[in-house]
Amino acid sequence: MTDTRFFVLREFPSGLPPLNLFVLREATLPDLALNEVRIRNRWLSVDPYMRGRMSGITTYVEPYALDKPMSGGAVGEVIASRHPHFQHGDRVRHMAGWRDVAQLPGDEVEPLPQFDVPEQAYLGVLGMPGMTAWTGLNLVADLQPGQRVLVSAAAGAVGSLAVQLAKAANCHVVGVAGSQAKCDWLESMGVKALNYRGKDVDALTRSLRKASPDRYDIYYENVGGPLLEAALSNLRDHARIAICGMIDRYNDTGPAGGPGNLNQLLFRKARMEGFIVAEHWDHYQTFLQQIAPDVEREAIHYRETIVEGLERMPEAFLKLFSGDNEGKMLVRLP
Amino acid sequence: MTDTRFFVLREFPSGLPPLNLFVLREATLPDLALNEVRIRNRWLSVDPYMRGRMSGITTYVEPYALDKPMSGGAVGEVIASRHPHFQHGDRVRHMAGWRDVAQLPGDEVEPLPQFDVPEQAYLGVLGMPGMTAWTGLNLVADLQPGQRVLVSAAAGAVGSLAVQLAKAANCHVVGVAGSQAKCDWLESMGVKALNYRGKDVDALTRSLRKASPDRYDIYYENVGGPLLEAALSNLRDHARIAICGMIDRYNDTGPAGGPGNLNQLLFRKARMEGFIVAEHWDHYQTFLQQIAPDVEREAIHYRETIVEGLERMPEAFLKLFSGDNEGKMLVRLP
After folding, report:
1. What pLDDT digit, counting tens, does each position of A174-228 carry?
2. Rg, C-alpha atoms of chain A
3. Using the beta-carbon criterion (under 8 Å), do B274 and A267 form an inter-chain contact?
4. pLDDT digit string (tens) for A235-251?
5. How many domains is chain A built from?
6. Among partner residues A260, A269, A279, which is closest to B257 by beta-carbon distance?
7. CA angle at residue B86 from B123 to B38, to 5 degrees?
8. Quick one: which of A128, A331, B85, B191 has the fewest CB in 10 Å?
9. Partners of A76 in the beta sheet?
């Protein structure tokens, strides 16, 4: 008899979800069916995209169902298997997160790659967020050596890899973040850092210009809002804006205005494009072969903000929106 | 002794230019220099992009200089030549418009192509506006047979070719225009027409949805403003927005809000891209070979709004912004 504890969503939030929206439930797992595996999760991922799944409508991922186990990226160890590819002790990654013990078909589970990195890296720099940074820069924004690259939320899980990939391509890289500590980290990686706090559109526009007087070929967009407007006013000809996210708006309760300077796309013959990493997942092995060796030898840096214990998972999730995390936000289970 | 009459700009306008900003001047032309040609203009073009040249700043074309002859597309007849490629009587196209007699280096002049069409067609359906429609649909928006295509300013010089090219590709085509007469013309070409007058963002959003319940793969954008916001709410996955112009904003005197729903680009993995036809002009011969035969045999329709006489050129230009033109707006000289 194995028990599982999992989170369910009580109702669909309007605005920033309150903590009591997330309810921890407990259940006894049924016997393993043929081809199923049972996994004790060690690391659970919280990601901004999950807010979109709490809206009750399909945005670009399926919404969470009310009163059903929530899901998300997780890394753990197989503790029982009736699937031929898995056995007790295997380290695996899967999407049955937001719980301590998962039980699911083996074909929804993947073994962890064999690089010499901490296992939780496969939820961050070598997982979905890292792959998102690589995809946005290379497949969407067409990164070219020596160009001028602007990254928002640059100290986050996605942004902190994006700035390093752009640096590795000999680009002039400007990263925007929301604290002195984050800016210090960015500067330590050779990135020109800019703190957005307390700056309106005009101040941001001037700061971006000062940080790259020749303006920007690429804007890696994680945020939206005033920063997007300031970036639009600082584009070079044929600039590309890769829209990875717009976290600034995820918790809006009503309509808000948008940038009044979209005509810059016309003047600069520029392109703005949204993308979802899932559609590019067939490039994951290419990404891994390119990036993982650099992570192994610590040529690529990453940070983690770790919250301990399943109970605190909603708190970890909500911290994504106050910007309390540096790098990848993770929940560790005992 | 040959005289020329030409327009100069008295000052840079704020908002919609007043008529008295355009001053008609007269001068005696100097003797022809070696390699120069002298042209009696027959047709002068007025185009929305000229408003951008009246701002005193470089947007995507060089600004007009104050108190200097204005310029723009023109078709005329060579009346004197010291250039080996041109002789008296040749029909030519060039950029020394806004005047009756032009004198310029022969290498800035091109002979009219030899298709059996009225000569002014080379300022419209077979000129810059037509090439703009073709470029935006094919080279920017990646037009594919059978897709759903939305075109704004659909009865204009650019839009009216865009809708026909999309129809010819077996697309479901919705055209937005500003009068019943324009809508009737669009419907006569098999286009689903929609009058934007009196509709706010919500009403436009509903109307666009009704006109194409499966939404749109392509939005050919000439207008901006509320229609762009409504279009963003009606995109299909992987939609493309080709930004040809944003005439809605050309005469704004201050900042105005933009669409609050740019996150639709993310949800729909969609792309929005500005372009300038001049950068694609090396495709002009391809365009001409594809389109001109259909114009010759009247399989492609076009309309002209003709204003008579050089003196009325500023009036013709200003009518572009009230939407008084159907199809290509032209000035005819005696």
Report:
1. 999 999 999 999 999 999 999 999 999 999 999 999 999 999 999 999 988 899 9
2. 20
3. yes
4. 999 999 999 988 777 77
5. 2
6. A260
7. 70
8. B85
9. A41, A92
Alpha carbons B87 and B89: distance in angstroms, whole number: 6
A296 within some domain: no
Q: From residue B206, how far is each of A317, B194, B200, B257 by CA, in Å?
A: 36, 11, 10, 21
Please name which of A305, A206, A244 lies closest in space to residue A48, comparing C-alpha atoms. Answer: A244
Range(s) of the domain holding residue B252: 128-278
pLDDT tens-digit series, residues B118-171: 999 999 999 999 999 999 999 999 999 999 999 999 999 999 999 999 999 999
For residue A246, the Cα-to-chain-centroid distance in whole angstroms is 12
Q: Evaluate whether A137 touches A147 at the Cβ level (below 8 Å).
A: no
Residue B276 in contact with partner chain A when CB distance is under 8 A: yes
- Verify that A13 and A114 share a domain, yes or no: yes
Query: Which member of A228, A260, A266 has the closest CB to residue B243?
Result: A266
At A57, the pLDDT band (50, 70, 90 cuts) reads confident
Report the number of secondary-structure helices (H) and strands (E) in chain B.
Answer: 9, 15
Q: Kindly report the average pLDDT of chain B as a whole number.
A: 94
Which tokens sit at A23? 């309810």
| Shortest distance, CA A234 to any CA of chain B (angstroms) | 13
Q: Please tell me whether residues B87 and B105 are part of one structural domain.
A: yes
Cα–Cα distance for residue pair B47/B184, rounded to 1 Å: 24
Minimal CA–CA distance to B154: which of B123, B189, B127?
A: B189
Instruction: Report the alpha-carbon distance of residue A146 to residue A167 in Å, rounded.
Output: 9
* Residue B236 structure tokens: 């299909």
**pLDDT at residue A55, rounded to an integer:** 82
